[in-house]
Backbone:
């Protein structure tokens, strides 16, 4: 059934298809049998003080503004990341900015942190929390900086999002690894990371309730850079790493037409081509540390999901695989 629907949605531009699909699901989820379709039992896991009903999460970027929280809850995710959110609303990069590469089962995106800003996300999360006071889906908030904020002031944007949304999150993810905001990845150096994460940890010390804090990294780092991040985690003790974000390495695309890829232009690759590089990062981090690792990149079936867990991930996230394999993937992976 999903393959048929996918063939129809794939006739639309990718970004339009995304919102059309979720709006359609917003309607059909009202039927009781739909919710039952996605129910399954799994072994809960507790990490960093949070209990997850299953190990399957949704990566940031899918629901940037918290518009589909009820729908994602129906799909029975163990956790989701909303965002990336920035303090001020921003339109992101010009469209088209999301592309399918079906032969590689991949996506290229250069969205550019398009989102409605801190206030809008806060309002939606407050409404959802009132409706679901005992929600069994953990909600992480992925935070970033506005495009026009210079890197030397980036810490201000991260602290604004952190403070403004602290009471609504179960955990936070610091995003300094998107390739689609100019110079953002420069913040992955140890000095800048320490500045940002230390500021957030100092704020956390003043809060009544403690919330885990994770860092999302790019798959294009050298292992020497990764070593610095692992060392930093030992020094200031944030809880772990989300490995990995999208890649700018076009050599990962082995089946797609090179001319089409060139015409698409800039953007980050996600989906099947990044599985191995993401797994190598997870495996390397696990060999050096016992920190929590949330593995993301290239998961589209049980085999790829299990490979991420075997590499050392504690939890896994999907995005492109969700697009290509459909909503049943959550149930399939949730039994791992």
Residues:
């Amino acid at each position: 059934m999903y393959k048929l629907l996918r063939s129809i949605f794939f006739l639309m531009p990718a970004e339009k298809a995304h919102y059309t699909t979720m709006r359609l699901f917003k309607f059909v989820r009202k039927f009781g049998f739909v919710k039952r379709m996605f129910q399954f039992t799994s072994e809960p896991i507790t990490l960093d003080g949070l209990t997850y009903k299953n190990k399957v999460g949704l990566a940031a970027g899918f629901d940037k503004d918290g518009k589909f929280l009820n729908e994602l809850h129906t799909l029975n995710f163990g956790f989701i990341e909303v965002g990336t959110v920035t303090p001020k609303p921003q339109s992101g990069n010009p469209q088209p900015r999301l592309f399918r590469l079906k032969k590689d089962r991949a996506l290229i995106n250069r969205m550019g942190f398009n989102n409605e800003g801190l206030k809008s996300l806060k309002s939606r999360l407050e409404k959802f929390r009132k409706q679901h006071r005992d929600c069994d889906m953990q909600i992480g908030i992925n935070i970033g900086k506005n495009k026009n904020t210079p890197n030397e002031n980036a810490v201000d944007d991260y602290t604004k999002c952190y403070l403004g949304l602290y009471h609504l999150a179960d955990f936070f993810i610091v995003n300094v690894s998107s390739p689609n905001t100019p110079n953002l990845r420069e913040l992955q150096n140890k000095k800048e990371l320490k500045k940002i994460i230390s500021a957030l940890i100092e704020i956390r010390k003043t809060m009544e309730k403690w919330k885990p804090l994770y860092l999302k990294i790019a798959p294009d780092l050298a292992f020497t850079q990764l070593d610095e991040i692992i060392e930093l985690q030992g020094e200031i003790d944030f809880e772990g790493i989300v490995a990995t974000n999208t890649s700018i390495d076009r050599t990962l695309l082995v089946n797609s037409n090179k001319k089409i890829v060139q015409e698409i232009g800039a953007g980050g690759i996600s989906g099947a081509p990044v599985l191995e590089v993401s797994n190598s990062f997870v495996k390397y981090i696990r060999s050096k540390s016992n920190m929590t690792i949330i593995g993301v990149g290239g998961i589209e079936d049980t085999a790829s999901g299990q490979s991420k867990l075997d590499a050392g991930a504690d939890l896994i996230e999907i995005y492109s695989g969700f697009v290509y394999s459909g909503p049943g993937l959550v149930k399939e992976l949730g039994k791992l």
Observations:
- Residues 234 and 289 are 9 Å apart (CA to CA).
- The longest strand covers residues 79-85.
- The chain has one domain: 2-334.
- Residues 2-334 form a domain with the TIM Barrel fold (CATH 3.20.20.70).
